Amino acid sequence: MGILLREDRGAVAWLTLNQPEKLNALSDAMMAALQAELEGIAGDTAIRVVVLGGAGKAFCAGHDLKEMQAGRQAEDGGAAYFADLFSRCSTLMRTIRTLPQPVIARPHGIATAAGCQLVATCDMAVTTETTRFGVNGVNIGLFCSTPMVALTRNIPRKQAFEMLTTGQFISATRAEALGLVNRVVPEDMLDATAQELAEAVAAKLSAAVRIGKEAFYVQAEMGLDAAYAYTGDVMVQNMLRADTNEGIQAFLEKRPPDWT
User: Fold this and answer.
1) What is the chain's alpha carbon radius of gyration, rounded to the nearest angstrom?
2) pTM of the entire structure?
């Protein structure tokens, strides 16, 4: 078995970080495996949603600190290695954001540092009642600057700043209240809830969801006038699609749509 597992359940691809002995740390190998798998999924029209989870007792404990310390032994003190590491991590996070298919995080146990960043980067998240979330790098003298990018785009700034500067964990219920996760469920309901949410999205017109995901993030970075102008154009293009016409006509005729 590899460090990243994939199981397709209908139109939903389940990806599982599979290094439980390392708390599924984002090692060089783990990031490479996840990057390659996501790039393959991007062009797979049979897959409409991705669910991302972790094996063992935790979702993801962030970067592999032992690997990072080994990189420090280079002649330049690790400067080139660290620059490459955080560049690759940022590319991975952007790949999730720009993936045509929605990605649902399925964290359990703990999601810390880059693991919390991973949850914040995914489009939605379902978690258990006992999961804890943190950006704890400050506890060891490393401010979680790159995880901060995703975190501050998910939760209010003051709460994000508190997490980043105290290094304290927050509970699943607190994470839900702040908007970091969508749903908190008992542990024995986690997989079923994630699958239910994934199937609800997968049942929609795939082209519309793909159009919508891209537009969702693009408009969020725009001013109000630019956002309305941009999304107006997006809706025009969406309306001109044959499957959209079929969906509207089917609704008016009170029948299921016959999408191609």
Assistant:
1) 19
2) 0.95
